[in-house]
TrEMBL record, chain A:
Keyword Cell membrane: yes
Localisation: Cell membrane
Keywords associated with the record: Cell membrane, Membrane, Transmembrane, Transmembrane helix
Chief place where the protein resides: membrane
Source species: wastewater metagenome
Cellular component terms per the entry's GO annotation: plasma membrane
Name of the protein described by the UniProt record: Cytochrome C oxidase subunit IV
Xref: InterPro entries: Cyt_c_oxidase_su4_prok
Residue ranges crossing the lipid bilayer per the database entry: 62-82
Protein topology in the membrane: Multi-pass membrane protein
Record flagged with keyword Phosphoprotein: no
UniProtKB/TrEMBL annotation, chain B:
Protein name: Cytochrome c oxidase subunit 3
Pfam families, alphabetized: COX3 (PF00510)
Name of the top EC class for this enzyme: oxidoreductase
SUPFAM superfamilies in UniProt: Cytochrome c oxidase subunit III-like
Signal sequence residues: none
Domain Heme-copper oxidase subunit III family profile: from-to ranges: 1-196
Keyword match Endoplasmic reticulum: no
Localization in the cell: Membrane
Gene transcribed to yield this protein: ctaE_2
Protein EC: 1.9.3.1
Transmembrane regions listed in the UniProt entry: 21-46, 58-81, 93-111, 131-155, 176-195
Keywords linked to the UniProt accession: Membrane, Oxidoreductase, Transmembrane, Transmembrane helix
Membrane topology: Multi-pass membrane protein
Gene Ontology molecular function, alphabetical: cytochrome-c oxidase activity; oxidoreductase activity
Amino acid sequence: MSRAETLSQHWIMLLALTVAAALAATVVPAPWLTPAVAALTVIKGRTVIDSFMGLRGASPLLRHSVSAWLAGVVALGVVIRLT
Amino acid sequence: MSDAAADTARPGAYAVPGDLAMWWFILAELAVFGALLASLIVAGALAPEVFAAGRAGLHPVAGLANTVMLLTGSYLVARGIDAAAAEGPRRCAPWFLAATLAGAGYVAVKLGEYADLAAAGYNLRTSTFHFFYFFTTVFHLMHVVLGMIVLAAVARRCRRGDYDDEGLRAPESAASYWHMVDLVWLALFPLLYVLP
């Protein structure tokens, strides 16, 4: 598969996950909504970081720094909402 | 990574898309947005009723449309870098201009949201939620506009052939900045529009 095809697949997946996150509030039971939306956000963010930003093969320090930012924001949201 | 960057990289060193200086800037921007998002999360936990009432006045479809436009812009930018890597920097120009249009769509939807909220009497002082909503989204919007200006400028220079001898360092730097703006919105979208 070419890189262009991979990017197109990731784009379609990201759009589908965005719609899923938007619909989650009406479908997912309240206790599971925050973890479900958090998981979708992490998947979307990691796809942007690895595929679109092209950090999959980049410096691990750089890749982990950006990934840690995403994980930190999402984790803070989950922990504060569930405690 | 661009050819120019590869030429100057130490043997065994990892690639960095674009300029390292741009990545310092991006990490600094992420730190600022991280503090802002953390403040938003904590404020929401301290006043859940105020935030729930504030969210009820937003248009979820507008938030969804904004996300779709930024993701599409990021996709177009990534395709531009892919095309430029295969056929030279000039090839990224149409993709970057298309991404700029996606960014313009985002700006139009956001301004429409602001106009609707202002017409309904909402402003920065209405509630804690509205303070955070306007402050974070306007701050983010400024970054979207800056990203559009950078993409359009780089596309123009790519089309003129200014980067033909320089590899992809400048286009990759512009692309990385745009993806950062997209990444921040992915974290902001559920906090403002989705979670109760």
